[in-house]
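>> received
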Amino acid sequence: MHATVTEIIDDLSLVIFGKQTQIKLALTCLFSQGHLLIEDLPGMGKTTLSHALASVLGLSYQRVQFTSDLLPSDILGASIFNSNEHTFTFHKGPVFSQVVLADEINRAGPKTQSALLEAMEEKQVSMDGDIYPLPSPFFVIATQNPLFQSGTYPLPESQLDRFMMRISLGFPPKEAERKLILGDNNRDYDALPKRINPTQLINIQDEIAKLTLSAPVVDYIIELVTYTRDSSIFANPLSPRASIALAKAAQAWAFIDGRDFVTPDDVQAVFKSVTAHRLAIDEQTSELQIKQLLNAVAVPL
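>> returned
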């Protein structure tokens, strides 16, 4: 299976140039059954990565453009009255897909944001007293514009916490941008080979959850999150939900690297993506602050 994961990364690298680390992080989030927040400027390849990821993994895909007038029913669906049968029929919204791209999530109002985030957490939609389960696997990729841009509604901390990881694609290397200008990237997502199917993906997620977490690695995670609670540097210390997310992400990173056990290096590899948005560290300063935190906690031998 590790060979297949390597092929998936290689396929995605044909679409997103020069961003292998970000591709691995996105797969880590999906494999660990989390949801992904991508914060970046428009035009950086966020939508491209989302669509290509769904294609390579053989998953159904829907994109929702968030705007200020978007309603919860535009995402979840609505009950429509059938005049012939005199009954209401629920028409499912785009959230009933295996991969959902919530594009520019912070341009919609808080009520609409909350509707999506509730579905992410519960993996079901409640409507008119009935419960409709969402597909499995279910993966939400939300993109967010930098908060200095006009017309944005920042996600509250409690809602940011629902995203397992936050990443930024950043500007491409010069050679990668040269290829983009010359049109060398493959934008035909449907032509990408489907390396696995949804059942195989669920099996991968189950296998990752069983990866060995040794006592020293668990203690290391606890020491890291405890440091944020005891330190006066961070206004928002890490919660137990963050501890669990960190462990799951480290397991998925180890799996992608072809190992059945987790090391402290795996924890460090995913630490920034799992914790920076929970600690309320912006993308501009997160690198330095996370590095200082990691240096302050002893690594188990």
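>> The radius of gyration is 20 Å.
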